[in-house]
Amino acid sequence: MKIRFYGAAGEVGRSCILIESGNTKVLLDCGIKLGKQEQYPLIEDSELKGIDAIVLSHAHLDHCGYLPHVFTAGYNGYIYTTKPTFELVNVLLSDYMKISEPKNVSKEGFNKVNTHFKIVEYLKEFKIKNLTFRMLPAGHVLGSSLVEVSDGKHRLLYTGDMSLKKTRMLEPAYTEDLKADTLIIESTYGGEKDEFPDEQKLINTMLTSIKETINKGGKVVIPSFAVGRAQEVLFILDDYMRSGVIPKVPIYIDGMIGKAMRIYRHNVIYCRKELQQRILMSEDDPFKSANFHNVMTKQMRGKIMHEHEACIVVTTSGMISGGPIIKYLESLAGNHNNKLMFVGYQAEGTLGRQILEGAKEIELNGHKVAVKMAVEMYRLSGHADRPQLLRFISKIHGLKNIFVVHGEEVKGKELHDTLEDKYKVQVPILKQEFDLN
Questions:
Q1: Phi and psi at residue 96, to the nearest 5°
Q2: N or C: which end of the chain has fewer CB within 10 A?
Q3: 193, 269, 206, 195: which is closest to 232 by C-alpha?
Q4: Lowest-confidence pick of 62-66, 282-286, 353-357, 358-362
Q5: Are residues 170 and 21 in the same domain?
Q6: What is the CATH number of the domain that holds 161?
Q7: What is the pTM of this model?
């Protein structure tokens, strides 16, 4: 078995890993890297035509955003993934095409994506030529998967993005009787100091801050990934608003978060049993809370921004790389009474990272905007932190080789240094190839 890294090597973004065994070639994920300029996997178009299949771990653009180009370039095979991932990918890619208008994608190529999915169930084996696969719950977002690959000689496990934390939506990643000689593991939070604080304390601090802003008549703006973080944040806000911990104000949902919420609701069987029972056994459907108001028009968005009423806005995009958040910041960033709350990872080179690191002036749509609103970070992450990553690794029987990916260079190096006494550990560079035989 050979492994080649076309993305996510020494970086967060453009996950794209080639697994080759005999005459079989399969890509694990096919994403883009968001930042000042979009970056794509370093795989040639001519090679894409020779790929037998793509196995998709989950529906985030850094893992699926390159799919329209792949089909534009002539790939005509299948994409294997879970049902929720399939449904979420279609919504994500439509939104991405509308906002980014990538020049490397044809209309025909984009339309082909939707017709080339093969749906697989968790824990059930499926074959792609001489390779055998299983998808296991990853605990990251709805439908997210660990990917197990075997060629009869080697068994490889790819984490995609994962979490060992139980959330309001999902159970932790699957860890029962894991066996693999080779692991490809994310390291988004694999650095020496990457241990998440107690989540309830974090939420309490966040709620206190929201209450302060509302009481001043300000607006709380929460940029969020449409898939995963947004649902968690909305459920937290709704729960504590119902209980009276934060004042009752409108919670506006903007961007494609509303569509993702409907997909979560339709696929609630993939969520925690407690959530399923809450919906089935009572009339209390948290997905349809009266506290939520979907922003359906530009006029409604303008009214929210210019009315003198306190409110909470949860909107895309999570790293401020496009979408409605740009309009909200243009209007609201200059007011000291307002607050911007980050709840997820801000990649290097993104506008979100600039603001988080203290930028007092940013450029939006070609003009300068002063950042006078308060800026705070509450890491409600769907990723594993360092202790979770180490615990996950310890649960894998027969493990010998580890490839550390999907992390900033320093994070990958620090995780490597921790593991190298016990395993053969590599932090691959882009386009590097390894032969396990």
A1: -60, -45
A2: C
A3: 206
A4: 282-286
A5: yes
A6: 3.60.15.10
A7: 0.93
Q: Which two tokens stand for residue 301?
A: 């968005």
Same domain, 285 and 400: no
Q: What is the mean pLDDT of residues 46-72?
A: 97
Tell me what pLDDT residue 188 has.
Answer: 95
Spacing of C-alpha 289 from chain mean position:
24
Count of beta carbons in the 10 Å neighbourhood of residue 288: 12
Is 257 found in the same domain as 119?
no
Kindly tell me if the per-residue pLDDT of 282 is higher than 80.
no
Identify the domain containing residue 315 by its residue range: 199-377
Whether residue 32 is found in the same domain as residue 151: yes
Check pLDDT > 90 for residue 344. no
Domain count, the chain: 2
Q: Which residue, of 344, 362, 377, is where some domain finishes?
A: 377
Of all residues in the chain, the percent with pLDDT exceeding 90 is: 89
Same domain, 355 and 243: yes
